[in-house]
Every structure is written in structure tokens, then in C-alpha cells.
Amino acid sequence: MLDVGSAFLAGPKKGVDYGKLAAEMPKIRAELEYVDHSLFDATPLIFATLIDQKPDSKNHASHLIITKAERAKLIDDLTGDFGSKLHQKDQNFTVSGASVLKAYFLKDYKCSDDPWE
């Protein structure tokens, strides 16, 4: 995508097939959309990698493998990077994935530095 954009911005050059370059753009955009959609679909699985599989006293996996400070930093990063987009209707897959991830971090999971029950 960068190469195609650079070719157009550089101005007309002999031997460059601008029609072919322009035809590549929809394909590249479709591939990017597929990647974004795949990451969105994988978001719950990505979060699940942070759940400690050691059960608590009620036999639930209720702890994360990260500390309170690490969770707070991740929440702050998501909020800082996406801001008000996290609350918009009709989000794209990237923002939707961030919204889902933040919602998981805000659930009632204990962190690795919380006492075990």
C-alpha cells in the first residue's frame, strides 16, 4: 500500500503501470480488513491467555497472570490509544477488539498480586 501510494505521489514516470497499481488497492484493503476481523475474532482468546488456570477455592479460574499495575497500564493504554472511539456505535474491527479487551480487563478478575481465596 505504501509503495503504491508513493508511486502515485512521485508523479508520472515512464514504464509505471498506474492502472495496475490502482487495481491492487482494493485487494490490499480487503486483506487488511481480513486481518482486522481475524484479530477481533481472536480477542477473547488473547485475553484468555492472561487467565491463570490455577483454580481458586471455589474451583474457578478467577485470577489473571498479570499484576494490578500491569492491568491498569493496559486499560490506560487502550483508553489513551482509542479514547472516545471505544464508546462509539458502529466501530470498526480494530476499535471493537479494543472495546472487548477493555471490557474483559474491567471484569471482576483478581490479579496475580491479589490474595488467593
Structure description:
- The chain has 117 residues and is mainly α.
- 57% of the residues lie in helices and 0% in strands.
- Helix 3 runs antiparallel to helix 4 (93-105).
- It is elongated.
Q: Could you give the distance between the termini?
A: 52 Å
Q: Tally the helices: what do you get?
A: 4
> Overall 3D geometry?
elongated
Mean pLDDT: 89
The largest sheet is:
none
Our Rg estimate from Cα atoms comes to 21 Å
Q: What is the helix content? A: 55-70%
Strand content: under 5%
Given as residue ranges, the uncertain stretches (5+ residues, pLDDT < 50) are none
Structural class: mainly alpha
Order of helices and strands: HHHH
The total strand number stands at 0
Question: How would you briefly describe this protein structure?
Answer:
The protein is mostly helical. It has helices at 2-9, 18-48, 68-82, 93-105.
Topology:
Elements: H1 2-9, H2 18-48, H3 68-82, H4 93-105
Helix pairs in contact: 2-4, 3-4
Please tag this protein with its features.
mainly alpha; 0% strand; elongated
